[in-house]
Write a structure and sequence with these properties.
heterodimer, A: 340 residues, alpha/beta, D-Maltodextrin-Binding Protein, domain 2, five-stranded mixed sheet, 13 helices, 38% helix, 19% strand, B: 390 residues, alpha+beta, MetI-like fold, two-stranded antiparallel sheet, 8 strands, globular
Chain lengths: 340, 390
């Protein structure tokens, strides 16, 4: 409650007192401030989590870094603001953060009634179930009557209700407000099942006292496209956030990596590569950024594939397969409109 | 000089002037709130954020762990408000009840002449009063309740009641035809007892003879309903919980979140009430006790007739504050998953609809209303207990 109060008071104050003055553009504000305020989770391995030194890492954090690299030319000029599921939208609406990159599912309601816009998808997820091996359950359809631990304020709560209703099963939902409390309650045996997006289940499992005793069931019961969110009505900023992500995907498609980007910039003859790196074409003009904005993203953060492998893929403890998140020409659905 | 005052203009009249300034003040206040209201609406609209209370009739689509009224995923957001509100009221009423009992017991115990009793009470008060409530809740929920067994290893009492980490499962009474008669018999018993009490008091006032009420009253309150119950052939059956699949089904469940919250909040608030009680009792001049004893009153009568009525005057105002704190502290429930108003309505519902302003305003309104009701009642009670000056 305490954590929730601040953004809500801020929103209320902003909405109440902000007279009808036109809002300054987010890009100008970020440039003037010299720091990009990025809303992330309170700690979710692989997506956004701070280590013991307070250094943030994860696939969502890397999107924050890409936006900062494109806008400010420096991926380290970021203030990370950890938010729980309940606080996130209010924090964005109130202007406490400039963009929200916190595993947020893109839905019609959220896109249309919160005064927010989703800029794309940086991870295609789906809701799954984590159960204790002792239960001997092989499929989610055997979960009738189960007690289920969930984090509040997520689409997960709604999907769960839909799934159990569709299959004529009953359940008891035990709702907590942080990942930590949810995992702890599951660990204690308060629930038979922990449900969340599948990617999160792998992360949360590493936090259990005996990770090997828990197993993720095969069923995926929902579509959870997770992506960055910005305030509605600031189209220039919306474009910057949208294309920062697209540039990372395009870079993977073109085979440009953090390691070879300088070499590519110096010697590549490919028009597509030259366009992305700002040597030809519209470059940064349309976005109002420096021409090397995409180069900075790749140089400082890496392409989408590198970011994925480093944080959640084979180079990480989570070891998640690319699956849907592979490029469109490699069996996945990760796709970007042409950068030209 | 009197002429001047007669010719005084109406705007120089003190009454008119004060009225004028008050009107300006009221105008400014109204104008301020109108400005805030219309500005908020305009800004919300400009940012494309939905407004209004239409969401209350939309389908909620999520489950709630504990509900005192029928609720399912197809109920409305409006109903989630009622469910959350009732859960908050439940924890408040139970919390106030237990905190009061604990507080009075411990407050009196701390003043006991028995060294051990008073030390134990002091240790209890000083320990629990000085640890943050949230930590105590985590302690009871995550540490103490963890010791309970899983559903398949439940502790059972005669195979009708079960205790495990998922909760306490009790048989649920199913009232048959004619059970209403038992209730009526009980109410009649209450009425007769009250009449008897008045008669006994009048007789004592007139003749000085005392009447021992207890045996007759217990006969009326317990015996009479029981007699009717058996005459009607026991119109009551029990729905006994049974282990099916993962969990117990049937019967009624007391969820561990409620137990942990109630334990934490009663024990915590109990310490403050105990101190209030101690201060109230100490505030009564010892001469009063001595005088009453000198009149030959029994020790229990001294407490009941002399000390407590005077102590209450000091205790009640502090008690009111503690009750208000308890109700507001119950909103910490969200941290351990108890579905109170803040967790359900200002939590899940807020996040599903995104209408923060409406929902927070409603939630604040509810707490304000509950608090004002409690303090209204306590003020009335305080007035009743106040010293009647002669």
């Amino acid at each position: 409650m305490k954590k929730l109060t601040l953004p809500i008071v801020a929103t209320a104050a902003a909405l109440v007192f902000a007279a009808a003055f036109t809002q300054a553009s987010t890009k100008e504000e970020v440039t003037k401030r010299g720091v990009f305020n990025c809303g992330v989770s309170t700690g979710l391995p692989g997506f956004s989590i701070a280590d013991e030194k307070g250094v943030w890492a994860g696939i969502d954090v890397d999107v924050c870094k890409a936006i900062a690299a494109a806008t400010l030319g420096d991926a380290s000029k970021i203030k990370y603001i950890p938010l729980n599921a309940k606080e996130r939208f209010t924090a964005l609406q109130s202007g406490e953060i400039d963009a929200l990159v916190r595993g947020t599912t893109w839905t019609l309601t959220r896109d249309t009634s919160l005064g927010l816009n989703f800029t794309g998808v940086n991870y295609y997820d789906g809701q799954g179930f984590l159960v204790s091996k002792k239960l001997g359950v092989k499929s989610a359809l055997e979960l009738d009557g189960a007690a289920v631990c969930i984090q509040s304020g997520t689409t997960t709560e709604l999907n769960l209700a839909d799934y159990f209703k569709e299959n004529n099963m009953s359940y008891k939902a035990v709702v907590f407000d942080t990942h930590d409390a949810t995992a702890k309650a599951f660990d204690n045996g308060r629930c038979d099942v922990l449900t969340s997006d599948q990617s999160q289940l792998y992360g949360l499992r590493t936090h259990l006292s005996k990770p090997e005793d828990a197993v993720v069931l095969p069923e995926v019961i929902s579509k959870e496209p997770l992506g960055p969110v910005v305030r509605q009505g600031d189209d220039a900023w919306f474009n910057i956030v949208k294309w920062s992500l697209n540039a990372m995907i395009q870079a993977e498609e073109l085979g440009i990596t953090q390691a070879n980007v300088d070499e590519m910039k110096a010697s590549s003859k490919s028009p597509a590569v030259r366009r992305l790196l700002g040597l030809e074409g519209i470059a940064g003009k349309g976005l109002g950024l420096n021409d090397d904005w995409a180069y900075q993203i790749i140089k400082q953060v890496g392409n989408y594939g590198e970011v994925f492998e480093r944080n959640v893929g084979t180079g990480s403890p989570l070891k998640i397969e690319r699956g849907l998140n592979a490029l469109w020409n490699k069996g996945g659905i990760m796709y970007t409109p042409p950068l030209r | 000089m009197s002429n001047v005052s007669k010719k005084q203009h109406w705007w120089n009249n003190a009454q008119h002037r004060s009225l004028f300034f008050q009107l300006i003040l009221v105008g400014l206040v109204v104008g301020f709130f109108w400005f805030i209201g219309s500005n908020t609406m305009a800004n919300l609209e400009k940012r494309g954020i939905s407004t209004g209370f239409g969401f209350l009739s939309m389908k909620s689509g999520f489950g709630i762990l504990q509900s005192l009224i029928p609720y399912s995923e197809s109920s409305t957001f409006g109903r989630t408000f009622v469910v959350g509100l009732l859960n908050t009221l439940l924890i408040s009423v139970l919390g106030i009840f237990f905190a009061t009992i604990i507080g009075f017991t411990m407050g009196v115990a701390r003043l006991s002449s028995n060294w051990l009793v008073s030390r134990l009470a002091a240790v209890y008060i000083e320990t629990f009063r000085n640890i943050p409530l949230l930590l105590q809740m985590f302690f009871w929920y995550f540490a103490v309740l963890r010791a309970l067994p899983g559903p398949r290893q439940s502790w059972s009492a005669g195979d009708v009641a079960f205790l495990n980490i998922r909760g306490l499962y009790l048989p649920r009474p199913i009232f048959g035809d004619g059970f209403l008669m038992v209730v009526i018999a009980f109410l009649a018993g209450v009425l007769l007892t009250e009449l008897l009490r008045r008669w006994a008091k009048r007789r004592q006032d007139q003749t000085g003879q005392q009447f021992t009420l207890l045996p007759v009253a217990s006969g009326l309150l317990v015996g009479l309903p029981l007699l009717v119950f058996f005459l009607l052939g026991s119109p009551l059956t029990w729905d006994i919980p049974a282990l099916k699949g993962f969990n117990f089904r049937g019967g009624m469940t007391i969820i561990p979140e409620l137990t942990a919250l109630l334990t934490a909040i009663s024990i915590y608030t109990g310490t403050f009430i105990a101190e209030a009680v101690r201060s109230g009792i100490l505030a009564v001049n010892p001469g009063q006790t001595e005088a009453a004893s000198a009149l030959g009153l029994h020790r229990s009568k001294v407490l009941k007739l002399v000390v407590i009525p005077q102590a209450l005057r000091v205790i009640i105002p502090q008690l009111t504050s503690q009750y208000l704190n308890l109700v507001k502290n119950s909103s910490l429930a969200t941290a351990i998953g108890y579905p109170d108003l803040v967790a359900v309505f200002a939590g899940t519902t807020l996040n599903q609809t995104g209408q923060a302003i409406e929902i927070i305003a409603m939630t604040m309104g509810v707490y304000l209303f509950i608090s004002l009701t409690i303090s209204g009642f306590m003020n009335w009670y305080n007035k009743k207990m106040m010293m009647v000056e002669r």
